[in-house]
Amino acid sequence: xxxxxxxxxxxxxxxxxxxxxxxxxxxxxxxxxxxxxxxxxxxxxxxxxxxxxxxxxxxxxxxxxxxxxxxxxxxxxxxxxxxxxxxxxxxxxxxxxxxxxxxxxxxxxxxxxxxxxxxxxxxxxxxxxxxxxxxxxxxxxxxxxxxxxxxxxxxxxxxxxxxxxxxxxxxxxxxxxxxxxxxxxxxxxxxxxxxxxxxxxxxxxxxxxxxxxxxxxxxxxxxxxxxxxxxxxxxxxxxxxxxxxxxxxxxxxxxxxxxxxxxxxxxxxxxxxxxxxxxxxx
Length: 282
Known about the structure:
Layout: H1 16-51, H2 58-73, E1 76-80, E2 89-93, H3 99-105, E3 111-115, H4 124-130, E4 134-136, H5 143-155, E5 160-162, E6 194-203, H6 221-230, E7 236-241, E8 245-246, H7 253-270
Parallel strand pairs: 1-7, 2-5, 2-6, 3-4, 3-5
Antiparallel strand pairs: 6-7, 6-8
Helix pairs in contact: 1-2, 1-6, 2-3
């Protein structure tokens, strides 16, 4: 599924100063991200045989790299609320851009659930595999398989994060949450399971399109990355942690998905971004 229900913001080719900014930001970011990847893989060689599925060390490397990458880019991160601590839990959020990965990883130790195609993407795919991303095919026939994978990861203490919209958007709205993956949280082996909704509210730089940070439809990753690195200045992303939802308090996955969607939608509203539901996505 690819959402493409809004005009894309104009992205002019970088001028001379733009290319200087690309080099000034891109080179240290590349060194940080791929240098961090090398360190993570080296540590994982020791961590894996000792701890197996659990990762007590490497997520801290991921978190530090993501914090550093946002600072190098100049995208300010503002946090409201607190990440869930302790117990068995997962996280759900709205999805606007590949920048979500940095904004969310910077705040807590999480493991993303992503579509299987991402594993084959150059650069991003390597990073995703190294950091413990769970790759799935969005097919209802594989729901039982997904549930077994989620059970194993959650019992190992992992905080799984997925985007229930199923696609990225222009960052200005919340699409209807798909409830299929929420079924994995109704397992007898996961007592006290909680799901924390998180809202990502992007505020564009002054003078830029409101959808400046959005990445959707036919957007090319390279072109979007170039635009982010070449920008004269950046805005900010608000990361709003809502109170966790107790799975046991909801009758089924659809009720849980609706409550999570409502919480995420309220975060955009509180951030001054009027959310809208796309009829085409329902």
